[in-house]
């Protein structure tokens, strides 16, 4: 029994580590994967480099990003860090 009580602090530390480090990191990772999976033409996005643009085409691992009128660049899909869905008029 004393051996089990000696392990209790280690179990507590592991639980705190999981609650404050591992769980939030996995949630952020899942949210990032969701953003990457649901990219659509017309979405306004921000790249990791700080470039703002509007998606004009979506391929497997690339997106065509319009950064100015008539200027479309190719960007890696993984470089997109934030999506601001453009309001679409019906």
Detailed description of the structure:
The chain is an alpha+beta fold and 90 residues long. The chain folds into two domains: 1-37; 40-90, SH3 type barrels, CATH 2.30.30.100. The protein contains one helix and five strands. The chain has one helix spanning 2-37; strands spanning 44-47, 52-58, 62-68, 71-76, 80-84. A hairpin with a 3-residue loop joins β2 and β3 (62-68). It is rod-shaped, with a radius of gyration of 21 Å. The protein starts with a helix and ends in a 6-residue tail after the last strand.
Mean pLDDT: 88
**CATH fold descriptor of the largest domain:** SH3 type barrels
Quaternary state of this entry equals single chain
What's the helix-strand series? Answer: HEEEEE
- Computed Rg: 21 Å
Helix content: 40-55%
Largest sheet: 5 strands, antiparallel
DSSP helical segment count: 1
- Content of β-strand: 25-35%
CATH architecture group name of the largest domain: Roll
The shape is rod-shaped
Q: In CATH's first tier, which class of the largest domain applies?
A: Mainly Beta
Widest sheet: strand ordering? 4-3-2-1-5
Number of extended strands: 5
- The N- to C-terminal Cα distance equals 69 Å
Low-confidence stretches: none
Helix-strand blueprint:
Elements: H1 2-37, E1 44-47, E2 52-58, E3 62-68, E4 71-76, E5 80-84
Antiparallel strand pairs: 1-2, 1-5, 2-3, 3-4
Short synopsis of the structure:
The chain is α+β, with helices and mostly antiparallel strands.
Keywords for this structure?
90 residues; alpha+beta; SH3 type barrels; 2 domains; 5-stranded antiparallel beta sheet; rod-shaped
């Amino acid at each position: 029994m004393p051996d089990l009580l000696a392990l209790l602090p280690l179990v507590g530390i592991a639980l705190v580590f999981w609650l404050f480090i591992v769980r939030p990191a996995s949630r952020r990772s899942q949210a990032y994967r969701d953003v990457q999976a649901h990219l659509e033409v017309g979405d306004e996005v921000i790249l990791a480099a700080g470039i703002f643009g509007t998606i004009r085409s979506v391929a497997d691992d690339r997106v065509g990003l319009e950064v100015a009128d008539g200027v479309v660049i190719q960007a890696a899909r993984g470089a997109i860090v934030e999506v601001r869905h453009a309001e679409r008029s019906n």
